[in-house]
Amino acid sequence: MIAFIEGKIVRIEDESVLVSVQGVGYEIVCANPYQFQQQMNQHVRIYTYHYVREDAQVLYGFKSREEKELFAKLLNVSGIGPKGALNILSASGVQEIAAAIEREDEKYLTRFPGVGKKTARQMILDLKGKVSNWLDEGTQVTGKGHAAQYEQKEQMMDQALEALMALGYTQREVQKIMPELRKLEAQSVDDYVRKGLSFMMNSK
Q1: Half-sphere exposure in the Cβ direction for 189 (13 Å, CA)
Q2: pTM of the entire structure?
Q3: Helix-strand-coil percent breakdown of the chain, rounded to 5?
Q4: Domain 65-134, CATH 1.10.150.20 — does that match?
Q5: What's the rounded Cα separation, in Å, for the pair 195 and 189?
Q6: Per residue in 133-191, pLDDT tens?
Q7: What is the three-class DSSP state of 86?
Q8: Contacts of residue 154, Cβ cutoff 8 Å, sequence gap at least 6
Q9: Which of 126, 95, 120 has the alpha carbon at shortest distance from 108?
Q10: Does 4-62 match 65-134 in CATH topology?
């Protein structure tokens, strides 16, 4: 098992990054390759999951050990493959996903691409109690109030995405910055849009 790779990022593509390590180039598939944009041509450590099957071998990469571990757990859920697991990780953070699983929030989980009610229920059945270690002591996982906060944030994020696309950005361009945008705790849609525009400018 290849636990991580350290080297220089020499190319970033829509689905992967290319890391040069002592003359060898490793293509690493990531949930959001453009999160490494600021580290282009710099020495980085990327945590990796070596996925092997009869017809392919793929290296999946993550910025943190927690992301890698959650990816591995998601692969054990019936109905979720590597692409589906990456889509989930690209749409939200480890803590948010873990909190939704622990509070059995099917509505939140079905917002992820490719996750229907059946898969969301399977995620809860298979992973509840196994992801709680990623929650901070102050993170609430139950109660209507906390669920409502998540729902409100998701609504603002959706509106911000639509606003950015109305300004001329493509859905692919907007999706590149969504993981960073989700880490923010903005107070309004306008705040998310302004920060999104800033991310767009920095990613060019």
Answers
A1: 12
A2: 0.74
A3: 50, 20, 30
A4: yes
A5: 10
A6: 888 654 545 544 455 666 677 778 788 888 888 888 887 778 777 777 777 777 888 88
A7: helix
A8: 108, 111
A9: 120
A10: no
